[in-house]
């Protein structure tokens, strides 16, 4: 049992660390000597739009992920689907509202929350829902990004 708690704690810390790096720009800004700066020609043409709308990862409508397995709030943005079993996005919901959203969405589908694995803090949450036909758990994690939005990660995994 402790193995699962350590795994969840590690994953929450990993997501929080990645979120913090993205907020701060990912590290120190290199300094340059103004005399050594080269002149660069900038192309001001707009890049071509993708032919397949599902290639765009910026809206809920573009995701090819199963909406029943990966329900998302209507304001989901920056949607990234990874391997068909993981989806990551941002929303303006509070952590509590997001937890209630997933309890409701998965409850309506007959999934049950594994209360023992539900972990919350002021800036993060992690929940696991059982009942998927594969026997895997649905792990939902949220991290407060500090700018009024939260990062949500949903994945199907052995738990």
Number of strands: 7
Overall pLDDT, averaged? 77
| Major sheet summary line | 7 strands, antiparallel
Poorly predicted runs are 49-63
Strand content: 15-25%
**CATH architecture designation:** 2-Layer Sandwich
Helix-strand sequence? HEEHEEEEE
Question: How many distinct folded domains?
Answer: 1
* 3D shape: globular
- In DSSP terms (H or I, runs of 4 or more residues), the helix count works out at 2
CATH class: Alpha Beta
What is the CATH fold-level name? TATA-Binding Protein
Helix content: 10-25%
Account of the 3D structure:
- The protein is of the alpha+beta class.
- The chain has helices at 2-24, 95-108; strands spanning 77-82, 86-91, 112-113, 119-120, 124-130, 137-144, 150-157.
- The chain has one domain (2-21, 58-157): TATA-Binding Protein, CATH 3.30.310.
- The chain starts with a helix and ends with a strand.
- 23% of the residues lie in helices and 25% in strands.
- The longest helix has 23 residues, at 2-24.
- The model is unreliable at 49-63 (pLDDT under 50).
- β6 and β7 (150-157) form a beta hairpin.
- The radius of gyration is 19 Å and the shape is globular.
């Amino acid at each position: 049992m402790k193995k699962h708690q350590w795994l969840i704690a590690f994953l929450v810390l990993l997501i929080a660390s990645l979120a913090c790096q993205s907020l701060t720009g990912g590290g120190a800004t290199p300094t340059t000597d103004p005399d050594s700066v080269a002149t660069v020609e900038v192309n001001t043409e707009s890049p071509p739009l993708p032919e397949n709308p599902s290639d765009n990862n910026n809206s809920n409508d573009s995701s090819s992920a199963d909406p029943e397995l990966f329900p998302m709030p209507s304001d989901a943005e920056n949607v990234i689907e990874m391997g068909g079993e993981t989806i990551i996005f941002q929303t303006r919901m509070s952590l509590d509202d997001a937890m209630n959203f997933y309890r409701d969405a998965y409850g309506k589908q007959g999934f049950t929350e594994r209360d023992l694995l539900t972990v919350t803090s002021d800036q993060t949450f992690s929940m696991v829902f059982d009942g998927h036909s594969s026997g895997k758990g649905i792990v939902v994690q949220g991290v407060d990004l500090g700018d009024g939005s939260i990062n949500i990660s949903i994945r199907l995994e052995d738990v």
